[in-house]
Amino acid sequence: MGGYSMKVVILTSSRADYGIYLPLLKKMKLDPWFDLKIVAFGTHLSKKHGFTLNQIISDGFEVAYKIETVSDTDSPMSISQSMGITITKFAELWSELYKSVDLIICLGDRYEMFAAVASSVPFNIPMAHLHGGETTLGAIDDVLRHSITSMSAIHFASTEKHKDRIIQILGHNKHVYNVGALGLDNINELEPLDDKSFFEKFGFKLDKPILVTFHPETKNFEQNEHHIDELITVLDGVNSQIVFTMPNADTNNEIVRAKIEAFVRKSKNVIAIESMGTQGYFKCLKECAFVLGNSSSGIIEAASFGKYVINVGDRQLGRDAGKNVLNCKINKDEIKRLIDKVDLLPALSVNNIYGDGHSADKIVDILKKMKNEI
Known about the structure:
By secondary structure, this protein is of the alpha/beta class. The chain folds into 2 domains: 6-180 and 357-369, Rossmann fold, CATH 3.40.50; 195-342, Rossmann fold (3-Layer(aba) Sandwich), CATH 3.40.50.2000. 40% of the residues lie in helices and 16% in strands. It has helices spanning 15-30, 53-58, 76-97, 111-118, 141-151, 160-170, 185-189, 195-202, 224-235, 253-266, 277-287, 296-300, 332-342, 359-369, and strands at 6-12, 34-41, 63-67, 103-107, 127-130, 154-157, 176-178, 210-213, 242-245, 270-273, 290-293, 309-312, 325-328. It has a 7-stranded parallel sheet, with helices on both faces. A 6-stranded parallel sheet has the order 10-9-8-11-12-13, covered by helices on one side. Helix 1 packs across helix 14, helix 3 (76-97) packs parallel to helix 4 and helix 4 (111-118) runs parallel beside helix 5. The radius of gyration is 20 Å and the shape is globular. It starts with 5 loop residues before the first strand and ends in a 5-residue tail after the last helix.
């Protein structure tokens, strides 16, 4: 590694991983020791998913490379083809960059991320992976996440349990670190939107809503229409304000989206938002009665706001979870039982097994100490 700086490429494929990266991006941008380049692809460049590339730019970051990889449809065939397109396009990028890059940083388990990482392997560029070692039984993500772990040289786990799982996958503990969940740094660094700013941005006031995020289950994708019907059937009988965040671009996400949009049109108390941004989402977490759905944010961030989470289905099962998480099947009777139960539960203390919100500092310190090993 020549000179004074580490040349780092960060891969971001969606609003979700970008929001998690944000604290690390800020620290690397301000630290002259890092020469940072951002590659945006996946749903960042999709108008249907809010064209969240604009969020990165408005936050003051330069996007060095923009790569279009999202398919127009959400069938297994189109997702598989999208993976092939992503590999091909990133092969061209790595061919251009491999001699001048010291480290690639990737996050999570999305199929687009897997494809981008897989294409780098023949170029032998060191890879650092965040959120490895986790398990999500209701998604194909496990095989993708564990594959990214196998292709990576440095591992930043979110809990001790997940660190142990990485070591089990690799067969060694070299460069495996528990730094906590990076997304929690945002809670320390970003104030939730105030009431006025939230209303100006989204056009409604929060009234102790149920905060709902429901992503398609990618292992049993044929069941997704039935799953969203079960969830909406329960919510249709609820008088509380309901705020949906829209689902990922997974298999059969169009069916889920269409059902949510139809529910919004017929209901005065239901609102759906494509992309809240981190501060908007934190405002909803702060004000909500509880969280409902199958998003990783419910498992990871909600505990820091002292909120209960009704985690439905298998998508997040297997991921390390705190005592605030209540699991149930995607069954209208079971979901209703837990909705009724949440109101009777005692208030939660703010305690999060995913760390203290100082992960970015830990990652930066580790990388600087490793400068001669990468």
